[in-house]
Each structure stands twice: as C-alpha cells, then as structure tokens.
Amino acid sequence: MQRERQAYEHAYGGLHRDLCDLEVRVEELRNDVINRRLRVSMADVETMALVLSRSSITCRHMRGNFIYSNIFRLVRFLKEEPELLENALRRCKKLTGTLVTLKR
User: Fold this and answer.
1) Residues 12, 68, 16, CA angle at the centre, nearest 5°?
2) Three-state secondary structure along the chain?
3) Confidence bin at 75 (pLDDT 50/70/90)
4) Nearest to 28 by CA among 17, 40, 18, 16
5) Cα–Cα distance for residue pair 102/56, rounded to 1 Å
6) Where are the domains of the chain?
7) Distance CA 49, CA 46 (A)
8) Are 11 and 62 in contact (CB under 8 A)?
9) How far is CA 14 from CA 31, 37, 59, in A?
10) pTM above 0.70?
C-alpha cells in the first residue's frame, strides 16, 4: 500500500508539473496573440493539445486505479477481517476450554 501511495504521489507530481508548464505556455501564447497580435503556430497549439490530452488520460488513469483499487481493498478487508477475527476468537475459546480442562 505504501509503495502504491509513493507511486501515486510521484505520478501526481509529474502530472502537476506538466499542467503548470502547460498553463504557463498557454497563457504566454494567449498574451502574445492578444497584446502583440502575433499569429499562432498550429504546430505549437497541437503540441500543447497533445500534452493536455496525455495529462487528461493520466489523470483519469490515476483516479481510477488509485481510488478504486484502495476502495476495493478496504471493502474486502471489511468483509473478511471480522470473519477472521471471529475465527480467531473461536480458537481462543477452544484453547481456553482445553486449558481449563487440563488444569482440573
């Protein structure tokens, strides 16, 4: 679980960095178009759109994998753990009974 958390944080750091860089580049391009009346290079826009598309896919993938896999684990834990504890309690009671009998 800890390794997955670290992998998630690493991936999120990369995603956050990519989005920050993209926001800066888009804002600079927007300002150049508005203030300097420069023409936009379609290659630049397509490159930015590709980065945005990859970031969106990464975000959806991270959300799906991290959140749902952890929820699945927690649900499984909540279903299985009480049964395991009940089984352990039955074993303790049986051993207690055996030890009481042996003491007599």
Assistant:
1) 10
2) CHHHHHHHHHHHHHHHHHHHHHHHHHHHHHHHHHHCCCCCCHHHHHHHHHHHHHHHHHHHHHHHHHHHHHHHHHHHHHHHHHHHHHHHHHHHHHHHHHHHHHHC
3) confident
4) 40
5) 67
6) 2-77
7) 5
8) yes
9) 26, 33, 11
10) no
φ/ψ of residue 34, rounded to 5: -75, -50
What is the per-residue pLDDT across 28-52, written as a single tens digit (0 to 9) for each? Answer: 999 999 898 888 889 999 999 999 9
Instruction: Give the per-residue pLDDT at 14.
Output: 93
Question: What gap in Å lies between CA 74 and CA 79, rounded to an integer?
Answer: 9
Q: How far apart are CA 8 and CA 12, in angstroms?
A: 6
pLDDT of 1: 66
Q: Cβ neighbours of residue 4 under 8 Å, at least 6 residues apart?
A: 66, 69, 70
| Residues in the chain, overall count | 104
Classify residue 100 as exposed, middle or buried by CB count within 10 Å of its CB (0-12, 13-18, 19+): exposed
